[in-house]
Structures are given as C-alpha cells and as structure tokens.
Amino acid sequence: MTWQVLVHGPLARLDERVSRALVDTVPRPLSELASDLGNMTVALPVLGCAMAYAVWRGRGRAALCAGLAMAAVPLLVIPLKEWTARPGPLEPWAHGYYPSGHTATAMVAYFGAAFLVSNRLVPVAAVLTAVTGTGLVLRGYHWPLDVVASLCLGLWILAVSSTCTRRSSARTATG
Fold first, then answer.
1. Weakest-pLDDT range from 30-39, 64-73, 82-91, 141-150
2. Domain spans of the chain?
C-alpha cells in the first residue's frame, strides 16, 4: 500500500477518485466531530483513565505496555509522513498526510483502554476508531488509504503491546 502511494500507482489513483466522491457527503460539523475523536486531547485522557484504573486493579505492567504503545504512535507515524510526503485531499500544496496520525491515535488509545478495562468494550473501541477514520475521509482531512495504513500500523502496535502484556502475565504465573 505504501509503495502504491509512493509511486502514485493504480491503488493511489483509485484512492483519490474514491476520496473525491466521499468528501463533504455529510455536513462538515458532523465529520469534524467524528475526526476530533482522534485528537490527542480526546483520546489520551481516555487511555490515561484506563491506565489509572488498570494500575489501581494491580495491572501496572499492562498499563505500562498500553502507555508505551501510545508513545510508539508518533514515533512511527511522523517518520512515515516525512518519508511519503503525501499531499492532502483538500491541500495539494501541503504534505504529511500518509498515514493518518489521528486514526492511529484513536485505534491505539481506544483499543488499549478497552483491553485494560474490559474486553466487552472492544466493540466500542472499534466503533470509535471507525467513526474517526470515516470522519477524516468525509471531511477531506485524509485520503482513505491514509486511514487504512494507520489501521494496519495500529494493529501492529497493538499486537506488539499485547505480546508484552502476555509475556509479563506468563512470567507472573510461573513465578
């Protein structure tokens, strides 16, 4: 996918056509509200509260893993944005749109919070992440592939974080 964006291949061209068809198909205030779910000022407090709850419940290692996963988001997203230098759908003169930092933030924060508090909240995390990505595309802040790439990156970050949590649980169980 990244390769297609870099060489402006057929997938990237399809992405641009799809984006043009979707931008502003809902009222802007609604798509902006959805996009805002991926802001650090919205998503981080949710994760922070879940981390505090996990520490209070004796799951400090899991909270640490979730925090490290969140810290990994900008460390991975920013270099990718610089490397790809993809222009935005509504701002062709600007770059740094691939992948979507808001989508990655939403995914890692909301799924991380769900895993820390209760697995029953995973569907809520999925909805919040989907609404964020959809809002970003409908508002014209990101191309659809920007969002898909961030979902892939977020999935990878969460998988690594989950491995960290499982390993610490296994060590605790065996002594």
1. 82-91
2. 23-174
Give the burial class of 164: count Cβ atoms within 10 A of its Cβ; 0-12 exposed, 13-18 middle, 19 or more buried: middle
Contact between 112 and 145 under an 8 Å Cβ cutoff? The reply is no
Residue with tokens 């820390």: 116
CA distance linking residue 35 with residue 107, whole number of Å: 13
Q: Does residue 60 sit in helix, strand or coil?
A: helix
Phi, psi (degrees; rounded to nearest 5) at 137 = -75, -45
Residue 2: predicted pLDDT: 87
Model confidence at 59: pLDDT above 70: yes
CB 63 within 8 A of CB 55: yes
Is the pLDDT reported for residue 175 higher than 50? Answer: no
CA 153, chain centre distance (Å): 8
Q: Alpha-carbon distance 158 to 175, whole Å?
A: 26
138: enclosing H helix or E strand:
helix 122-139
Say what the pLDDT of residue 174 is: 47
Question: DSSP states of 74-135 as a string?
Answer: HHHHHHHHHHH-PBPSS-TT-B--SS-HHHHHHHHHHHHHHHHH-GGGHHHHHHHHHHHHHH
Q: Cβ(158)–Cβ(69) under 8 Å?
A: yes
